[in-house]
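pasting for ref
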Amino acid sequence: VCTETNPEHVLLGEVIHGDYNTWVGPTKGLLHSGTNYQLSKALWSSLKEHNFWELDSAIQRDLMLYREMSLVNFLSNHDVARVATQLEDEPLLNKLAHFMLLTFRGTPCIYYGDEVGVKGCKEDGDAALRMKMVDPDVASGEWPAGGKELYDFIAKLVAFRNLHPALVCGAHQPLYHQNNEMVYARRTPDGSELLVIAVNSAAEHSHVEVAMGCLDKAPGTLLKCLWGDGADCGSINDEFKVRIHLPPYSGRIFTLSHVKEPASEGEAPEVAGK
């Protein structure tokens, strides 16, 4: 009935627990998507506890059971503590949480107020989680400290995401994780775009060596940084590994492009346009 009324409609359900296959499946006449509580919780709690093993377990389960779905991920909602409160002991993790929300598989959802760092404790009741919207005028004085910086960061990342289909609809490939570091790839269904995303949730610099063999890229393939700061990580070596530098509390996004082998001695180089 919904499809006949409006072919472009989207049916979204709040599914707290259980098997999403029971509720989600538009080709079966079910919902288009549902709230992905198990992955969403892990997104912020793995940062808070500095335990990316939790997030890896959640994404592996997600890929095993719901690979064909695009479930809705979030950091806060009307029933749980605000992410800025969950991560208030290390405020820089809030920015990193939104970075991961917008680069992970699934459909990201930002609960109003989170984009400027509004806080709220569940123990203070529903009103603390469902307050009025912050005045959009920064000069109003309603924005929390650091709110403008967080808002600008998220806005830029949303614009970046919209330009890169691998982040919107790409498959998700875990590559590496330790307590504070995680690396994963996103690849479009047609293989036209492949991005590698790397995260460091620690207060110190980190250098990680990541195996890239599963990406089917030859040695010499260069990783070019599209987002984030850090030293150049070079190209995939003969062991199909690459070393990535990650500054404190940082997220970086790389594209992969093959570096052409130099012409051997005595071999004429290709002429452009030939």
